[in-house]
Amino acid sequence: MRQLFDLFCPFGNINRFILRSLTQKFTIFAGMKGLLVNCIYGVLYLLSLLPMRIHYLFSDFFYLLVYYVVRYRVKLVRKNLADSFPEKSAEELRKTEKAFYHWFCDYVVETIKLISISKKELQRRMVFKGVEVIDEMIENGQSCAMYLGHYCNWEWVSSFPLWATPKAKCGQIYHPLENKEFDSMFLKLRQRMGALCIPMAETLRRIATFRKQQQPIVVGYIADQVPFWNNIHHWIDFLNHDTPVLTGTERLVRSAGHAVVYLDITRPRRGYYVGEIKLITRDPKQTKDYELTDAYFRLLEESIRRAPQYWLWTHNRWKRTHEEFNIRYDEDTGRVSLEPLDVIKKRKGLL
Known about the structure:
Layout (H helix, E strand, L loop, with lengths): L1 H6 L8 H9 L7 H17 L3 H19 L3 H11 L5 H24 L5 H7 E4 L1 H9 L4 E5 L20 E6 L5 H11 L5 E4 L3 H10 L4 E6 L12 E4 L2 E4 L3 H9 L2 E11 L2 E10 L9 H16 L15 H7 E2 L4 E2 L4 H7 L4
Parallel strand pairs: 1-9, 2-5, 2-8, 3-4, 3-5
Antiparallel strand pairs: 6-7, 8-9, 10-11
């Protein structure tokens, strides 16, 4: 069960170790990996054909198993919630914790449903408001960057092309999986509604290509992950934490001159989401350093505080502290050392 939920928890790396372990056991014959993935996809496809109400019955069962039996990352979720909302009582925190696991199990079955759900049905369940703001930009030949978080069902946001003007090319940045067969399976899932998946390493080249072709694009960026040590350039106060944040998206959209919006998602009831497009700026080149990043995290925090159960609390978001960063940072070279912490402390005379 832990492996199943790690598989469908797409916070950056979808537990590559587990995917490798699953496939390495089936390499006796050539092509066995592909066969395994096809079998998994076939089973998931058949499950996806079930009515949504049956999926939620499975979700209710999974909730009991995941929360009360497996205890999937419960200690981490509990700590994240307590540290983020010190003003809440123990009873309120436990209520939010249980609500999170209920939603998390819903998210898993909703993602499986994405394999076969019709465009019409998904448009009924994932509604976008304020699309005219982006359509106007596209009509004027301006591309747009859409910030969103791991909040509510971000996988269903891949249906945005069904709402946007046909003149727009819609895409999303993603981390390719090490296992090509699993990567192909998830690409098929995320591109069903017309969104183009752009590998992170190819982002600059793809955007430059679209600009050369004079093709306006709308690109989704999920930017609430924890950055690697050597990618930390900015810290903010986020959910009562001193938080290192990714700034690459800001640098990219400022250089490209893309307008910037935030997708504020709500969940009015089970199985239904509304994504409201909120304009941050039409001219990012006029903003100051980190202004866009700060605006994004401010809006994301507002979303989370409104309904905290819909953010991905199972991620160890605050594992990199400012204190450890200061120890790792070398003022002479301007770089962050990736050596074991004890080695750095010993060299700096901190032990």
